[in-house]
Design brief:
The protein is α/β, with parallel strands linked by helices. 36% of the residues lie in helices and 15% in strands. It contains ten helices and 13 strands.
């Protein structure tokens, strides 16, 4: 996806969650467009094109570990988990925020209580997302702040995600992947770089405010087809083992003893046959989005 329109390099951008997968993509694109960025995160990373002096360590409650930038920052992209946003809103307001684009997730719906899945931890996350979105909207309205929320679907890219990359690691380690029945549930994976471009496009479109967009990748495919393409990218022959739900639940008990798989649960298997798709046409039209199809490159795979 291309970034449409010229970027005004006179208006700096604050990025909270800058060390995240999407945050790194945002910073690289801002640097490429010769725009000033101020990065805020709990840890400092090296991003090509970003002056290290413009990177600030930010505590959970909005406390900076050094003196804040003297330049007012009116435009912000928030890519840290959205449930951390309410605690940082006073800081953003102090810094001069007038326009904020926040990255949320369609997990608000797919993992919510009543969506058909009973995993308590996932239900809690979905509720945190919903509560944070609503708090942000009310706060922004009361403070006169322009706001936009973007809800991407299944985010992947550069080996830094917790979904596609975990499947790739499993395939590389075992040479096969377990599927529940047909695994016909539909998916719309979106690359982290396309999410970053959508956030910058939303930030630049000054006449657009008080809006929520669901954004997805360039194609819709079944869970089984999605995993097949991960096999292809890993240069490993596709090998599925069809696992009944009861056996999957039993295997999860033992997998939780392996640190990497502690987050796995039976809901993951059930969702293989559920459609997790969203209408993203409005976002594509209003933001000028043209996200890529799900074709993994070597850069998108986790390092061995």
């Amino acid at each position: 996806m291309e970034l449409e329109g010229a970027v005004d390099d006179k208006v700096p951008v604050g990025v909270v969650g800058a060390s995240s997968l999407i945050g790194g993509c945002v910073l690289r694109w801002i640097a490429q467009q010769k725009r000033t960025a101020f990065a805020f995160s709990r840890s400092v990373r090296k991003i090509n094109g970003l002056n290290r002096e413009n990177w600030y360590e930010l505590g959970d409650g909005g406390q900076l570990h050094r003196t804040a930038p003297s330049t007012p920052i009116t435009h912000w992209i928030y890519v840290a988990p959205i449930w951390t946003l309410p605690a940082h809103l006073p800081f953003l307001l102090t810094m001069g925020a007038r326009r904020i684009v926040a990255i949320s997730s369609t997990s608000r719906f797919t993992k919510a209580a009543g969506s058909g899945f009973a995993d308590h931890g996932e239900n809690q996350i979905a509720q945190q997302i919903a509560d944070s979105e609503e708090f942000f909207q009310h706060w922004a309205q009361e403070c006169g702040i322009d706001w936009i929320i973007l809800r991407p679907t299944l985010v992947y890219g550069f080996g830094g995600d917790k979904n596609i990359s975990e499947i790739a690691r499993f395939i590389r380690r075992f040479g096969w992947f377990p599927l529940l029945r047909g695994a016909k549930g539909l998916r719309q994976p979106i690359h982290a770089e396309d999410v970053a471009l959508a956030a910058i496009a939303a930030l630049n479109k000054e006449d657009l405010r008080a809006h929520v967009f669901n954004i997805s990748g360039g194609e819709t495919l079944t869970y089984a087809e999605m995993v097949s393409r991960i096999f292809l990218a890993c240069k490993t022959p596709t090998k599925f083992i069809r696992v009944p739900l009861l056996l999957f639940k039993f295997a999860i008990i033992f997998l939780k003893f392996i640190p990497r798989y502690r987050s796995w649960n039976s809901s993951m298997a059930v969702r293989m046959n559920e459609d997790l798709v969203f209408d993203s046409e409005e976002g594509r039209r209003q933001l000028g989005l043209s996200p890529r199809q799900f074709v993994l490159t070597d850069l998108d795979l986790p390092k061995l």
